[in-house]
Specification:
2 domains; mainly alpha; single chain; 10 helices
Length: 212
Amino acid sequence: MDEAEKRHVEYYLGNSVMNPETRVKLNNIGFCSHHFPMMREAGHAHHLGLLVHTHIQQVHKKMAGNITSLSRGGSAKAAGFFSAAVRSQAEGCLICRSQERDLKRYSYTAVKLFIEEEEFRRLFTASLGPCLIHAADLADMATEVLKKNDIQLFLTALGNHLEKSLEELEADVLRFTQKFDSQNDDMEWGNSRDAHARAVQTLSGRVVRLTD
């Protein structure tokens, strides 16, 4: 997902910025507070400037009435309309939409391969497994595209996987915290050195730095 995210950033900062259809989407939807800074850090200053210029024109046009209401000594109602408009605009994001499509495609591929390919099922069972966020996506996809018996097969495997991985992670995090007590200096670290970071990955669905 992180690699796909980088590809989408590069796409919207590339030659697509000159595509009229893409520019219409950019102008109307824009990017969220997570992805806009990523686009700034990716470089391509000229293309970023081009798309930001027309996008901010569109935003200004949409917000003009709400801003005028504020500048004329607006009421609490006017403030509410303005805040709702700003938040609605900020929540729109072309990259988030692309990410959602990618994730659905990945989830579909995973659940279908689990049922149809014995080798994939073996690899899935032997793997570290999905984080909770993507486990939910897999569960939803399984109920959407698999037959009843296959749904039960996949969900049982997913549930067993999560139960085992969460139990191990919980134990590792506990050991990690205990190692900060001088009374436990002789305790072995085991697999707990990066347990705090792995817990963040499991709960958030995002890749984070494992070593301090």
